[in-house]
Design goal:
With 460 residues, the chain is α/β, with parallel strands linked by helices. The mean pLDDT is 98. 40% of the residues lie in helices and 17% in strands. A hairpin with a 4-residue loop joins strand 11 and strand 12. The strands form 6 sheets. It has an 8-stranded parallel β-barrel with strand order 2-3-4-5-6-8-13-15, surrounded by 5 helices. It has a 3-stranded mixed sheet with strand order 7-9-10, covered by helices on one side. Strands 1-19 form a two-stranded antiparallel ribbon. The structure holds 6-O-phosphono-beta-D-galactopyranose. Residues 17, 20, 165-166, 169, 222, 295, 334, 363, 367, 413, 420-421, 423, 427 line the site of 6-O-phosphono-beta-D-galactopyranose.
Length: 460
């Protein structure tokens, strides 16, 4: 027994996504997604002009990579399926994609690595974006067709599915902040995108349950606990609104089957409510998730709005502003605060306010620039900072679980260095280092460490 012992069957693993790891973006019948297209028209927006075509070559090297997972005792892995690879025209199945995913899932299972398969990780097929992306009801239906196809093809072996990874991110980055394609800044359109993503998720949950496949389906949300600067009324209100927009907008409908009434009232007040068709809210109410994945990187610290609002448009920032906590510790490469206790707060929050639904940490990690600095004589990245990061988060997670939170696994972001959207390969997160010139992989010290933890199901 170790000091921090985890329950039998606890899942230890890593997450990844198709666009960030597969590469082979335009071969074997794959259609373009928004990343492929956006890189073509605005390559300068990507770090060092590196795009999504050949990201980490998982499509080519998945067999050896899965052996590497096994080598460090991971018992689970979360890839995503590329919608535009599986259904290039949105309707018809691409057999080469089916072969690839079949082989990948079979290989994982043969190595005792349980796949948790995610359907949507920021990667809208371009032809559907042209139809309006998540603003379009037609795309919601198309997603359901894609989900059903994936369940039919792979549901005999894949027993854990997730509908979306961080559905708030395409809303925030694509429709509020000009960080992701289609680079819109419009709160009303953002709300429609959020609502349709939620509806698409609930419909996929419904389809999965109707298929009778004897597995489970969940959703992965990036929960950012909102901490107010003080207990003043203004600061508390600011934190509550940030929480409504960025956490509860997906957490409540996904787990409880209904939107928070305060959120609905706020949107109504500013005339931002989306078009809701008859039956939509019933679908959301009746098809809640079986489990939750939680990505946790950083908290959100807020205070009441003190500086004038810059635009006339209504945006979430009109209701609060960021607060810099004097004691904060930063990951300077990513600009994110490191606050390990946040994971404990999430664990207890899920236990107390979300029916103690089964959940797992679906991403937790630290992106660091220029890691070659830390390569030792044997060629290994000595990433003690990352081990420290995992360990401290795991201690808080363990405490939350001891107090009864129903957590069944811990996945890091990510298995091997991969392509981080606009940041491309700037910050590295992997348990394995990827040399981009040779595509060779080398386990990092943190990979070895996590492997030991997985093997002992705990650590001292
Ligand atoms: C999460 C995403 C991942 C991943 C990670 C790290 O939000 O689900 O896709 O990229 O964050 O962030 P970044 O790559 O922007 O540094």
């Amino acid at each position: 027994m170790t000091t921090y012992q985890f329950p039998d069957g606890f899942l230890w693993g890593a997450a990844a996504s198709a666009t960030q790891t597969e590469g082979a973006a335009d071969v074997d019948g794959k259609a373009k997604n928004i990343w492929d297209y956006w890189f073509e028209i605005e390559p300068e927006r990507f770090h060092e002009g590196v795009g999504p075509q050949e990201t980490s070559t998982f499509y080519k090297n998945f067999q050896a990579d899965i052996e590497r997972m096994k080598a460090i005792h991971l018992n689970s892995f979360r890839p995503s399926i590329s919608w535009s690879r599986l259904l290039p025209d949105g309707t018809n199945v691409n057999q080469q994609a089916v072969d690839f995913y079949n082989q990948m899932f079979d290989e994982l299972l043969a190595h005792g690595v349980e796949p948790i398969v995610n359907l949507y990780h920021f990667d809208m097929p371009m032809h559907f974006q042209e139809k309006g992306g998540w603003e379009s009801r037609e795309v919601v239906e198309a997603f359901n067709h894609y989900a059903q196809t994936a369940f039919d093809l792979f549901g005999d072996r894949v027993k854990k599915w997730t509908t979306f990874n961080e559905p708030i991110v395409p809303v925030e980055m694509g429709y509020l902040n000009d960080f992701h394609y289609p680079c819109v800044v419009d709160m009303k359109r953002a709300v429609a995108v959020a609502f349709h993503s939620m509806l698409a998720s609930a419909k996929a949950v419904q389809s999965y349950h109707q298929a009778g496949l004897h597995g489970e389906i969940g959703i992965i949300l990036n929960l950012t606990p909102s901490y107010p600067r003080s207990h003043s009324k203004g600061d508390m209100e600011a934190a509550k609104i940030a929480d409504l927009f960025f956490n509860r907008s997906f957490l409540d409908p996904s787990v409880l089957g209904a939107y928070p009434s305060e959120l609905v009232e706020l949107l109504r007040k500013y005339e931002l409510l989306p078009t809701i068709e008859a039956g939509d809210l019933e679908i959301i109410q009746q098809h809640t998730v079986d489990f939750l994945g939680v990505n946790y990187y950083q908290p959100r610290r807020v205070k009441e709005r003190e500086t004038p609002i810059q635009t006339e448009a209504i945006l979430p920032e009109n209701f609060f502003e960021p607060y810099i906590w004097p004691e904060r510790r930063m990951n300077p490469y990513r600009g994110w605060e490191i606050y390990e206790k946040g994971l404990y707060d999430i664990a207890i929050h899920i236990k107390e306010n979300y029916g103690n639904i089964p959940w797992y940490v679906a991403e937790n990690g630290m992106g660091v620039e220029n890691e070659e600095r830390f390569i030792d004589d044997s060629g290994m990245v000595q990433d003690d900072y990352r081990i420290e990061f995992y360990k401290e988060h795991l201690k808080w997670l363990h405490k939350g679980m001891e107090e009864g939170s129903n957590c069944f696994g811990y996945h890091v972001w990510t298995f091997m260095d991969n392509w981080s959207w606009l940041n491309a390969y700037k910050n590295r997160y992997g348990l394995y280092r990827v040399d981009l010139r040779t595509q060779k992989r080398y386990v990092k010290q943190s990979g070895k460490w996590l492997g030991q933890v997985a093997q002992q199901n705990g650590f001292e």
